[in-house]
Amino acid sequence: MVYEFIKVSIDQAVGIITLNRPEVLNALNLKMVDEIVAELERMDRDDKIRAIVITGNDAAFAAGADIAEMADEAAIPMLIKDQFAVWDRIAKVSKPIIAAVSGFVLGGGCELMMNCDIVIASETARIGQPEVKLGIMPGAGGTQRLTKAVGKVKAMEMLMTGEPIPAEEALRHGLINKLVPVEAYLQEAVKLAKQIAKQPPVAVRLIKKSVLKAIDTPLNEGLDYERNSFYLLFASDDKAEGMRAFGEKRKPNFAGR
């Protein structure tokens, strides 16, 4: 498929989506978000792909939403359009998504990053939700996911001042997984994705679903979900292969069944 605002590549079992509007620091317009989600869903259906990386460029992962698209909008047309509904589909992607971010990670870019499962950031990354400076607030999950990630008081500060935080601080608050030099952030993300891609796909899928369940449900409900997923994996060929390989002291070859 040919896209206007993203580039797609494959590295072994890893699908890579690169945001490609460098002239506006990868600002997310509606078509770009549609393309990102469509490709995520396509990769999710592709059995040859076992992990996904989303990245931008050294200057910007994404510097926010495309303000020009919203500047003249009114409340009711925005409500009817419901431009954020497409974002809900990202959470339904079953394969692990790793964000490789650098430079500006702001507004919608921060929300896209927080929709990913793991985040590798360069030392130049600056992460935040500056919408309040435009007289608005986040609408694609920023208030919710940021609060769950960094806690109430830090989220209040970031959201109400609109000031971004440097990558080092984001690491301390658990907003990103790893901080690396700018020349290595994408390679590190792809390396991690390849490591995950070698694991049994069904187990990885159920682990992702179980962790997401932990965020949104009471402990007892989450424990029930985890336990049932654990039992379900005993019906998989990969469980048999993994345990057989362990006994034979060799590396397993997981087929995703």
UniProtKB/TrEMBL annotation:
Pfam families: ECH_1 (PF00378). Keywords: Lyase. The keyword Lyase applies. GO terms for biological process: fatty acid beta-oxidation. PROSITE patterns: ENOYL_COA_HYDRATASE. One of its GO terms (molecular function) is hydro-lyase activity. Belongs to the enoyl-CoA hydratase/isomerase family. This is Enoyl-CoA hydratase. It comes from Effusibacillus lacus.
